[in-house]
Amino acid sequence: MSLYARIAGTGGFLPERVLTNQDIEAIVDTSDEWIRERTGIRKRHLVTQGERCSRLAEVASRRALADAGIDPAALDLIIVATTTPDQVFPSAACFLQQRLGIRGCCAFDLVAGCTGFVYALGVVDQFIRTGGIRRALVVGAEILSYIVDWQDRDTAVLFGDGAGAVVVEAGPEPGILSSHLHAEGAYTDILQVPGGVGDRKRDPYIEMRGNELFKIAVTTLSDVVEETLRANGMQKSELDWLVPHQANFRILQAVVRRLKLPLDRVVVTVGEHANTSSASIPLAFDVAIRDGRIRRGETVLMEAFGGGITWGSVLLVY
Length: 318
Ligand code: COA
Known about the structure:
Blueprint lengths: L3 E10 L4 E3 H5 L6 H8 L3 E3 L7 H16 L8 E5 L10 H9 L5 E5 L5 H14 L5 E9 L9 H4 L4 E11 L4 E8 L7 E2 L14 E2 L1 H22 L9 E4 L4 H11 L10 H4 L6 H11 L8 E8 L3 E8 L1
Parallel strand pairs: 4-5, 4-6, 11-12
Antiparallel strand pairs: 1-7, 2-3, 6-7, 8-13, 9-10, 12-13
Helix pairs in contact: 3-4, 7-8
Bound molecules: coenzyme A.
The site of coenzyme A has 18 residues, from helix 2, helix 6 and helix 7.
């Protein structure tokens, strides 16, 4: 009998504090109009100083566990996709395990930039298909405001903080159908946070060549969607929902236009959440499930790209 990795529950968490485009106008030379036109972003949620990635992850995880009706003690695996863990080590996943009050299960972080959550779902799918585990907690959690240079208008307008989580359970019904994960290390310098271990002379802030990245994102995302559909012998018309990484509404629109998908089948949260990196897909997924758009039995395609560069997709039946 085939085993599938099925989403048993979802949860999200956005910090209370909101920073609007108007608030950013007071920090750098920009305008609400420019930000909305070029990115679709209207506001973002930010933590207050002292907050930790694993705390955001905990709130989202407890909501996902409650939604799934699963006790934390039943988990076999925790993966936290993040670029902003509490510390260099131990992993945010180990801090999260401690916060959940459980012991013994496998726990690790996964770094794949904004593609982290998609990568993590792909990894969990392999564990479940081989029968290695039965229940996993997969979290995307980020405090990007700690690695944004608030004097750099190129990046300050784009990012937000938050966490999204799913509980994945083994079962006979689909489930994740396939995952498609890619990386191109030749582009490490196009989107990066330099500095850190072994290089303390550079500030650990996001550096980005936005224009180049924009074009690469549209091409790689369109390609990976085609690759996913081909691998599953599916037509675009058979997709119920696209839940893309929420980087920029124009990127999302360009991909959707290329694929000739109707925009009302695409979950869009970038206006309210901004780019929360690996948290953006699980947050958007949770929003669309809770407001009743995505229903059990529907087919959902998730796709993302990010620093590395990395890109990938997961096709699943919710
Ligand atoms: N406010 C006002 N003006 C700004 C600005 C800001 N925050 N940032 C840049 N500008 C200016 C530029 O200086 C430039 O001015 P000029 O024409 O006088 O030289 C002009 O706006 C256009 O800049 P450009 O970089 O060509 O804009 P763009 O249309 O490419 O939009 C991004 C910029 C960053 C929004 C866009 O390239 C993007 O979203 N890229 C992908 C980024 C991304 O997704 N990163 C995360 C990946 S996971």
